Amino acid sequence: MAYLSMGEAHRRITDYLSCFSAALLSQDGPSLTPLLLVSSNSPLLLSVAHALDVFSEWPRLVDQIDDQVQLFAEIVSPLLRCLQSFRAGQFAEAYVSFEKSANAFLQEFRNWESSWAMAAMYTVAHEIRILAEKADKELALLGKNPEKLQAAGSFLMKVFGVLAGKVSKRVGALYITCQLFKIYFKLGTVHLCRSVIRSIDTARMFDFEEFPVRDKVTYMYYTGRLEVFNENFPAADEKLMYALMHCNPQREANIRMILKYLIPVKLSLGILPKLWLLEKYNLIEYKDIVSSLKSGDLRLLRHALVEHEARFLKSGVYLVLEKLELQVYQRLIKKIYIIQKEKDPSKAHQVKLETIVKALKWLELDMDMDEVECIVAILIYKNLMKGYFAHKSKVVVLRKQDPFPKLNS
């Protein structure tokens, strides 16, 4: 690191404090926001962090301005300590300092009638989540309780309450909600999302379409994921499709994140994606699953689930994909039906269990008649096939008109 004189360090800190003070006094949101980006590689904040290490008496510089701006020291002093700790790689200490600064900032923000500092509040919300994640990783490595992300969630709930309570600031509630979703999904406490969703729905605080597009896309993405977990696929399809259609087409990483959940939903509804889509967004793990649904190859589906098990489990879609087995059975029986129809149309609707057992053996799946009978009964019960089972003759009698309904109907 380049040598820095005491005089230059003093000047850098003074300039930062003057900018911060001026932004608060003039209510200049665009000037205030970059001064809060602790976790960024901002050249300005890097230079200030260096200066803080050189000029150890910087707290008295803060005190000189404190008389001019209410709560200035309470906001800026812990913010600068946070900056020092963060650059030193002491993330737990950085989080503690930032939380103090954030609470003081929120106290002032609550008193401002206009929404001039909304972007700054967004930055505070984003930074506290990022710092909490880094702090929890550090604490876990030290064998301590990783509790900072949970604390960040509690702080953001206070922010949500402030935003929801004032008409001029309600537009920011959805951004904070999305930050909360990211925390709850990270912690595995997705059930907590429900209370926030209810608050937005019941308060009717804003016409949804009036929120910023970025926030609407993120909100629909996370609520769509919640519907996936609940296996409410029509609702998940609607929300994730909204996120996809309104996502910036240049943000391919975000599109891939949406598709990672939308594809299992579409598959569950009987809609198969094109191969070019999987290749374009590097979602090749779904390729064999799509092929198995097209061909009725249960062996291929199971192989794909084993091969990509870790990835599917991490994203939480493994159980959704595993349940596609019924669709694969349906496709296999449908192929048998089509072959029989070509040979003898009059008997196409009568499918012997023995024929299904032979087809499964050809796929190297050893299943007896009782197991196959059970699967057929489930297919009929689930409305994946129309017909009935003739127990004595061991024959599935399919309805002559449309025996295999479309799943998305």
TrEMBL record:
UniProt-recorded Gene Ontology molecular function terms: double-stranded DNA binding; RNA binding
One BP term from GO: transcription elongation by RNA polymerase II
Cellular component per GO, a single term: transcription export complex 2
PCI domain location: 217-403
InterPro entries the UniProt entry points to: Csn12-like, PCI_dom, WH-like_DNA-bd_sf
Protein name in UniProt: PCI domain-containing protein
